[in-house]
């Protein structure tokens, strides 16, 4: 399952940047740097900024390890720079990053392929401000029902997600979501269990379940504050549900053209047991509370081995 261990290499770890997920990225990047140094590599951490290309040219690395969360790291921007410079890098290529970072596009791809995802509609700011889309909200609400999930179309780490329990809560939820993105998704709320399946080198890892310990749900704070969420890995699911979750994760990973690794977020409906796919993350978190490292640990792969495998996949591409 593991890629061939990489020889000593000069590796740049790309982290930080300008997105709202900067602090999470710095945390992921620092852990990656420590692991790579323990593995014997020459490691250079780069907080991504305007001088990135000059620094990359000066260092001439053997590979780049992308720990850059947020738009620049996940929508293909940093990948395109690395492609131009001829630097191998971890994770998915430009086109897959673009598909996965745009949650609306990714969900349409799933629908077209017959893969289950919660029913949804999407609007951009222009539609609301200039085309009168607000007048269509009653029809949207009638189709999707309540409560609704309202979220930005291109943010990660649960940023900007709001739950609207009734029509009166929708406008404020939309304002909040539009503060993070020019496009928002209104999605049918699935009352169920929050699951994640990480893919590594073509294999689906054990399912992780995130159980929030307070009433606010699995939001940004719950995800990254130790003690706010309980994680179970492997998730306590029957064999058929586990197999189906892993099958769906692999199918979506392949459908969207992901490479090396990804994390697929799903919901398991409490009433029906049906599984639906929420989204795919091409740069999964690598913090102390992140799900990919937990899934790897469940198969006996410690953090250093995980990072070494991810680097080896890049060097072997």
Give a structural overview:
There is one protein chain. The protein is globular and about 60 Å long. The longest helix has 17 residues, at 22-38. It contains 13 helices and 13 strands. The protein has helices at 22-38, 52-59, 71-74, 77-85, 94-101, 103-113, 125-130, 137-144, 170-178, 220-224, 239-255, 291-298, 303-315, and strands at residues 10-15, 42-47, 63-66, 120-124, 148-152, 162-164, 183-188, 192-200, 203-204, 208-212, 229-232, 261-269, 275-281. The chain is α+β, with helices and mostly antiparallel strands and 317 residues long. The strands form three sheets. Strands 8, 9, 10, 11, 12 and 13 form a six-stranded antiparallel beta sheet that branches. A four-stranded antiparallel beta sheet has the order 4-7-5-6. The chain has three domains: 10-90, Rossmann fold, CATH 3.40.50.20; 99-116 and 190-315, ATP-grasp fold, B domain (D-amino Acid Aminotransferase, Chain A, domain 1, 2-Layer Sandwich), CATH 3.30.470; 120-188, ATP-grasp fold, A domain (Dna Ligase, domain 1, 2-Layer Sandwich).
């Amino acid at each position: 399952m593991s890629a061939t261990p990489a020889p000593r290499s000069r590796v740049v770890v790309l982290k930080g940047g300008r997105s709202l997920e900067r602090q999470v990225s710095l945390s992921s990047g620092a852990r990656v740097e420590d692991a790579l140094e323990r593995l014997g590599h020459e490691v250079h951490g780069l907080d991504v900024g305007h001088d990135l290309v000059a620094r990359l040219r000066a260092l001439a690395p053997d590979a780049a390890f992308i720990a850059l969360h947020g738009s620049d790291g996940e929508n293909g921007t940093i990948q395109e720079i690395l492609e131009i410079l001829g630097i191998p890098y971890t994770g998915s290529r430009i086109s897959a990053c673009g598909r996965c970072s745009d949650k609306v596009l990714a969900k349409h791809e799933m629908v077209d392929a017959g893969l289950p995802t919660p029913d949804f509609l999407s609007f951009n700011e222009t539609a609301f401000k200039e085309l009168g889309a607000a007048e269509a909200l009653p029809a949207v609400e009638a189709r999707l029902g309540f409560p609704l999930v309202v979220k930005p179309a291109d943010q990660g780490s649960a940023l900007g997600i709001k739950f609207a329990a009734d029509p009166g809560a929708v406008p404020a939820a939309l304002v909040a979501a539009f503060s993070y993105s020019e496009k928002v998704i209104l999605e049918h709320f699935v009352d169920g269990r929050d699951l994640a399946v990480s893919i590594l080198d073509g294999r689906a890892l054990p399912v992780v379940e995130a159980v929030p310990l307070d009433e606010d749900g699995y939001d940004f704070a719950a995800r990254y504050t130790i003690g706010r969420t309980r994680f179970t890995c492997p998730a306590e699911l029957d064999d058929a549900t586990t197999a189906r979750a892993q099958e769906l994760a692999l199918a979506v990973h392949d459908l969207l053209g992901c490479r090396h690794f990804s994390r697929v977020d799903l919901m398991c409906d409490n009433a029906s047991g049906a599984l639906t796919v929420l989204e795919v993350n091409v740069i999964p978190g690598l913090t102390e509370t992140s799900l990919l490292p937990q899934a790897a640990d469940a198969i006996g792969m410690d953090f250093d081995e995980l990072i070494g495998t991810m680097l080896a996949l890049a060097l072997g591409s």
